[in-house]
Amino acid sequence: MKQPPYPAPDFSLPDYEGNIKNLADFKGKWLVLYFYPKDDTPGCTIEACSIRDAHTDITALGAEVVGISKDDPSSHSKFIAKHSLNFTLLSDHDGKVIDAYEAWGKKMFGMEGILRRTFLINPEGTVVKVWGKVTPDGHGEQIVAELRSRQG
Predict the structure, then answer these.
(1) Which CATH number fits domain 6-16+32-150: 3.40.30.10, 3.30.70.270, 3.30.420.40, 3.40.50.300?
(2) Which H/E stretch holds residue 57?
(3) What is the pLDDT of residues 61-111, one digit of tens each?
(4) Band (1; pLDDT cuts 50, 70, 90)
């Protein structure tokens, strides 16, 4: 895994409504980009809800949140509705962006899959922090604390 700081890899992916989102859409803002294995699974739900609950603080600090998985837009739509998620989820069906961010690899029992990783990207488009092994519970608070420490 690369050590920050480094330029954030570009992306162009659909959200749950089919709108294409690009890294450039977030230029000038902090971006919390997190990768997760699958919609509506226990750990992914805990992580998403933790971020949802911290979302007001995250946005107050000038950041936006984007989650990425291989799930399709209709799955994201159901996940968002079921858990009242208040941030964007993008679909990376072919895994190219997941690979670009090095969020694919060995998991438990030697199986490969999406690794639970979060990237903090500054307003200039530079990755400045990577959480390499995210603990789902309380991750939203970790993000808020990191944003606060970086913004003085």
Answers:
(1) 3.40.30.10
(2) helix 42-60
(3) 999 999 999 999 999 999 999 999 999 999 999 999 999 999 999 887 778
(4) confident
CA dist 23 → 28, 50, 121, 126, 127 (Å): 11, 23, 10, 11, 12
Tell me the whole-structure pTM to 2 decimals.
Answer: 0.95
CB neighbour class for 127 (10 Å; exposed up to 12, middle 13-18, buried from 19): buried
Whether residue 5 is preceded by a cis peptide bond, meaning omega within 30 degrees of 0, is yes
Token reading at 12: 């162009």
Measured over the CA atoms of residue 135, residue 140, residue 144 and residue 145, the dihedral's sign is: negative
pLDDT of 6-51, one tens digit each? 999 999 999 999 999 999 999 999 999 999 999 999 999 999 999 9
Q: What residues pair up with 14 in beta bridges, in sequence order?
A: 20
- Which are the catalytic amino acids? 44
Q: d(Cα 64, Cα 44) in Å, to the nearest integer?
A: 19
